[in-house]
User: What shape does this take?
Amino acid sequence: LFKGKLQQWQEPFNPTTRKVTLLWLWFGVALGAGLIKPGGLELHRSVFATIGNTDFIYGITGEFLPTSWEAAFIPFWVLLGFTVAAMLINWRRVDVTHLFLLLPFVYLGLRYNRGVAVCAIVIAPLCVCSLQQLFQRPGLQSKAIKLCFLLAITAALCWTVYIKLPEKGTHLDPSGVRTGLGINRAFLPIGVTEYIKTANLQGNMFNTDRFGGLLSFYLYPERRIFHYNHPLLFRDIYEYLHNPGARDKWEHSYAIVAKPLEVKMFENKGWVRVYHDPAVMVLVDPRQTDRRIIEKYAIRYFNPLMSLDQARRYSRTPQFAREFLREVANYLQFNEDPRFCLILVEGVSGDHVGLDEQGKVSLLTAALDSNPDHDALLNNLGLLLLRQGNALAAKAPLERAQQLNFSRTGALNLGFVYLELRTFEQAAAVFDQLLKNDAKDADAIFGLALALRGQNRHQQALGLFEKYLQLAPQGRFAQRARGFISEK
Assistant: This one.
């Protein structure tokens, strides 16, 4: 039925009429979408307001500078070169519509480096169309010429992929996240949105320009965003940064900042740092912020970009260690960072930090929020819970740690957790595995003896207690082993 109706609709029109009708149809759809979207028409007006603007604000804004020959823009220049070359070689067949479409976008792409992406989207299909017509010309049917074109296009594509999709961990992508396959937290502060929600910061927010869109996605409408990186707002932001008298009217109570100028501006007013990741900081006005938030999250020493040697000096110095490790744990609660996980584990393992075991458990638990698969965190949390006599709570982190990375110490702790929970078969399996790796592991022998004793296999357990004493007569379980032997 639908096919029949479509044929009836097409019959009165010739091909040219159908094309024009479809163009009007999609123009109407686009116009309607622009009218429905809040600020839709304003977006078009702002483009023309920006073009040719001689305001000094635009002159010092990086994205409105002409497109340079930096590595990031080379793929654009290559695409533009291919398109222009194909059109010049094939100029007799160039569609005038394509030419009029090409010229304004090329102007924008050359005049403002912000226009490169939009320009590339427009000229890519025009380039393909021109190359297709070029290949169809009688004088260019040679396989060698076609092969040269294909090789050139392939080389440009491969080079672009190399820049845009680098391998994990390379100098082009230090975060370890391939572009397009995840959010690069080294450049996009996802943790800050989680922090603001957790701390429940209240009042008016100031935010650095380039993160307005990200913050609106995660925090709006519960929290209003101060500004988006919109050209028509640049003068207001410039005035805010350089004219102290223009700030008070906004009544900001916390700020998300990334530039040294912004940090200095708020710290000169006595604001306090409460969050810091590789991309941004959060500062709060102590006069408008709940004191409990400042006491819990205030930062005095920690910086995620500090060297590990410097971090270790803080974590090992008694006068700094307790506060510094609290700051590290707060950071890890909202950020995945294996380096500082190790710093935290090393710190809580010492007795100089001035924390009881419950305090250490709290720090490790917070760090696991964003680092749930860090085996050292899991192993140390399990050990602390076991020492507190909470074997049931220790079971899950120790099991997860062994799944991620088998270790002797973690396996021993897990085996003793199973003994505490009286799951003797599981305990025996863990100690058996340790003894397969090292038949003279005295601690594993003692643990297996306890597991067998719990299964009422007393004779076998007795032999293992004796073997333990042969291997470690002064070992940490020697007194207990002698006591079990004397009971026979």
In short: Confidence is low (pLDDT under 50) at residues 169-177. The CA atoms of residues 72 and 268 lie 37 Å apart.
